[in-house]
Amino acid sequence: MKPKLLQWSACVLLTLLLMRSNAVLAQESLTLYINQALEANESIKQQDFQFERSLYALKEAKGMFLPSVTFSTTYTKADGGRTIDFPTGDLLNQAYSTLNQLTGSNNFPQLQNQSILLNPDNFYDAKFRTTLPLINAELIYNKRIKQQQVELQRTEVALYKRELVKDVKVAYYQYAKAVKAVSIYESSLQLVEEGKRINTALLNNEKVNRTAVLRSESEVVRIDAALTAAIQNQKSAQAYFNFLINRPLTDSIKLDDMQILPIQDSLTDSRVDKREELLKLGIVKGIDENLTGLSRSYIVPKLSAFLDLGSQSFDWKFNDKSRYYLGGLTLTWNVFSSGVNSYKIKQARSEQQSLAAQTDYIEHQLKTELQVRKNEFQSALAQYHAAQSQLKTAQTYYNDELKLYKEGLAIYIELLDAQNQLINARLDLNIALFNAWITNATIERASASFSIQ
User: Fold this and answer.
1) d(CA 206, CA 211)
2) Which of 152, 200, 248, 354 has the fewest Cβ atoms nearer than 10 Å?
3) Which helix (H) or strand (E) segment is 449 a member of?
4) What domains lie within the chain, and their CATH numbers?
5) Which helix (H) or strand (E) holds 375?
6) What is the phi/psi pair of residue 269, to 5°?
7) pTM higher than the cut 0.85
8) Looking at residue 64, what DSSP letter applies?
9) pLDDT band at residue 16, thresholds of 50, 70 and 90?
């Protein structure tokens, strides 16, 4: 008894391992497609460009703390305008005349009174100005905001990727379901063609009337039309999946066997704290706090240093007399602005309160969505198990009716009913299986459990 029990246990374990292995292979194939989609999707590329732009904006904000050097020059040509009269002759000519008499010479000439033009004529001023902020609260808050905007854009990229992963998985399962439906209809077509052959043989032996043959021919046409529709549905699913991964729409898609239910290990987990939507709101809250600080930064005076190295002179002269340096400190303080700054602070605080209320609402909404997805998954599991049982019953019913019909103990309408029940049971099981995979993907999206690189 024990050897048989051990053999039976080993068979069950081997079966489970094989089933698990098939599921892993399917996921490996799907993972390759997901990676391809993340690399090739145009929307993701656009978000990457936005992220790169936010990085440059952060570097710009950091650069504002470093010294900046500018070069400027001016040249003026003037004539007329205000003047300063300087009585040079009146002040010195009498003294010069006395000196000439005493020395008996003309070494001291007579001078004219001067009229000096205030506007500099033929004058240039060229300089390099170096400035360095020493105290500037606005720059500090601006840098913090830019850093948070980088995180915000990084989260936005992750959000796009997560949504794309869900779309790719759902499209993959929809395509697999369509392929399986085509296979079911192909086998069903063989089934009804076999029924037509049997009815034709029975008609030739005068065991049934022509009505049975006509009805079986009608079933062949109906299933053939359903097969055509299923093939078109498969092509549409194929095109949409290839569109998501940015490939030619008619490229083939590799499918592994997925004949077991997905394993859901976190049905009892109701946490949504990994959702990018909440992470974004948290970052935006931090940005609003820094915006409030930015509005209050007027309280802190701004202090900066400057140094000018240049040359200024007339007639474009450049020498030791024209070169100069000039340095100093600049202090500015917003003392009064008619309440404008206080209004900005109140606006920022109101925005924070609104964001807090929005965060609570979004979190509750996401938890509700996760619970709904879990309920859908439980329903899909129940439908799958019911479809399994129904398929077994329908297969037995059809086999029995086919045997009775061949022996002339059942009418064709009974066989036709058993046949349709079998076809529908196969389709229902296929739908239930992949609906379970699809709802599992939506749970993964709702709980943000898929690892985004």
Assistant:
1) 12
2) 248
3) none
4) 19-72+134-304+337-447 (1.20.1600.10), 83-118 (no CATH)
5) helix 340-406
6) -90, 120
7) no
8) T
9) very low
